[in-house]
Design goal:
Serine Threonine Protein Phosphatase 5, Tetratricopeptide repeat; 9 strands; alpha+beta; 3-stranded mixed sheet; 19% strand; 2 domains; Immunoglobulin-like
Length: 240
């Protein structure tokens, strides 16, 4: 595990240095804020807590940056934040280019941590009438919210999280997606098991549902006020 973390640090620093441009002066002559560069500097001096904060700031600007997610996963390993490390390495596994150094290192770390990495994460998208193969499942649906004056509207950009339950074969598995412009969402390659489907990791939630994903099957579930936590809460004692 230590060797994987050391390798992860080298890759994270190298990728971040290559993909993030240097800070440039703003129109007023004062250097513009560059949390990615600040995170790089913090990682070099091994200030992992500061690096984590800067990386989270940087990700709010570039939420799809593989290098930033990878660096955050690396910081989490040095902070012994297993939950964050697992979530971020899985994000990298799902979004990094196949065969890239980031994907290889993420796969190695997850395997060393005793987590399942056999699902074809990062592969081709499943669309149309295609069905999942290779022992994984798909969860699809739409997000709709109440609109002023009545009726429902699709919700774009809604964060959704599938969290494997501790007593399920999917324990330690976690998947995250955001809804599209039309409110649709899709978890493409999900390991079989029982999950909590929610829109928040902690704090007040809109949805908190128990769902079961089966191998080579598609599960359709639409999220709306009708199955919100105010109406149906499958985890009433949970904080997330």
């Amino acid at each position: 595990m230590i060797s994987r973390v050391a390798a992860a640090l080298v890759v994270a620093l190298t990728v971040a240095a290559c993909q993030n441009p240097p800070t440039v002066p703003s129109a007023g002559g004062v250097a513009a804020s560059d949390p990615a560069a600040d995170a790089r500097a913090a990682m070099v001096r091994r200030d992992w807590r500061a690096a984590r904060e800067f990386l989270q700031q940087a990700l709010s600007r570039e939420p799809q940056s593989v290098s930033l997610h990878y660096a955050l996963a690396t910081c989490a390993t040095y902070l012994d934040d297993r939950e964050l490390a697992v979530a971020e390495f899985r994000w990298v596994l799902e979004h990094a280019l196949a065969g890239s150094e980031e994907q290889k290192a993420a796969t190695g770390w997850l395997a060393d941590a005793g987590l399942r990495v056999d699902a074809p994460i990062g592969g081709a998208s499943i669309s149309g009438d295609e069905r999942p193969i290779g022992g994984v499942g798909v969860v699809r649906g739409t997000v709709r919210v109440a609109r002023p004056g009545g009726g429902l509207s699709p919700k774009e950009g809604q964060l959704l999280v599938l969290i494997g339950l501790p007593d399920s074969p999917a324990k330690d598995m976690r998947y995250r997606v955001r809804s599209r412009e039309d409110g649709s969402f899709e978890f493409k390659t999900v390991a079989p098991g029982v999950y909590k489907l929610t829109d928040r990791i902690a704090g007040p939630v809109t949805w908190r549902l128990r769902v079961q994903v089966e191998a080579n099957r598609e599960l359709a579930i639409d999220l709306s006020p009708d199955n919100s936590a105010k109406v149906r809460d499958d985890f009433p004692e949970s904080s997330g």
